[in-house]
Amino acid sequence: MKLMFASDIHGSLPATELVLAHFERSAAKWLILLGDVLNHGPRNALPVGYNPGAVAERFNSIADKIIAVRGNCDSEVDQMLLHFPITAPWQQILMAEQRLFITHGHLYNPDKLPPLAENDVLVFGHTHLPLAEKQDSIYLFNPGSVSIPKGGFEASYGMLNDGVLSVHALNNDGVIAQVEITP
């Protein structure tokens, strides 16, 4: 199963358009949004092309292909604009030999892990920093941010394809980080 991940969009319409273009080209089954979809939050500057209403409309056009979790900047008011649920703090995707634990990262993260089995994958955003690695017996995966990257990284998104988790630059699709997951 091919999956695409995007996090920390923060209402940026240009970033949303690029995410949707990559999603369409990728032939991924699901677009997984890791929170902070519409609002920029009080600690962030306004992202380029800040337009939460238009971002909601664009994502609503593929609502049946989205799995989403709630970020620390998401609210019930945001849910009123979106045609797919975003209020769950976490989701799980079960694969043949492991699970993906999907969360924003402000509640569960590498420093505060949920109960995970060996070779499970913690998929999170929140830090705006890309990461793809195995740590001890679990995998950690963060696609970075599509609108407000930090740490000197480019805006980025993530993919799961043929057992490889990879982070790609949003503007040129270059690989920033990757790890092969094994059962």
Describe the structure using short key phrases.
alpha/beta; 183 residues; 5-stranded mixed sheet; Purple Acid Phosphatase, chain A, domain 2; single chain; 11 strands
What's the CATH class, please?
Alpha Beta
Which structural class do the helices and strands define? Answer: alpha/beta
* Unreliable parts: none
**CATH architectural grouping:** 4-Layer Sandwich
Please outline the major beta sheet: 6 strands, mixed
Fourth-level CATH superfamily: Metallo-dependent phosphatases
Helical coverage, percent range: 10-25%
Distance between the termini: 15 Å
The counted number of beta strands is 11
Percent strand: 25-35%
- The spatial strand order of the largest sheet comes to 3-2-1-9-10-11
Question: Please, how many domains?
Answer: 1
Per CATH, what is the topology?
Answer: Purple Acid Phosphatase, chain A, domain 2
Radius of gyration: 15 Å
User: What is the element string, with H for helices and E for strands?
Assistant: EHEHEHEEEEEEEE
